[in-house]
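Protocol step 4 of 5: obtain the predicted structure for the target chain.
Materials: sequence only (see below). No template structures provided, no constraints applied. The aim of this step is simply to have a reference model before the mutagenesis design in step 5. Sequence pasted as it appears in the construct record:
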Amino acid sequence: MAEMTFQHLSCPVVVLKENVAEGRGDTLADALRSELLAVYVQSAATHAILDYSAVTYQASAGFRPLLSLLRQVRNRNGRFILCGLNPEVAETFSVTRLIDTSGSVKATFETFPDVPSAVAALYRA
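Step 4 output (structure tokens):
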């Protein structure tokens, strides 16, 4: 199937949702990485928002797909935003210094409470 090209419309942001509650293991991490990158590349979007509200546990292997997507987004001069982190998952990201809950330092990932606030942040800049 040929890829459609639009003349009058563009999508500067792609919104993705992680549906796996517990990001454990290399196999899952590799599959998630492939899916995230495929959707992002096919979308031709500049920015990416990942809704993490369904995730209840974050293992260290689960960071790899996110870092790979972050790299791709930055290659397009975009912003990658995580949203909907539950408290336990947010603590894991905070302890590893991938997010900053105090707002005092620039962290690897930007976070917002939900998708609408993440989208709004992209247009406030």
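Step 4 remarks: The helical segments are 26-43, 63-75, 87-95, 115-124. The CA atoms of residues 41 and 107 lie 24 Å apart.
Proceed to step 5.
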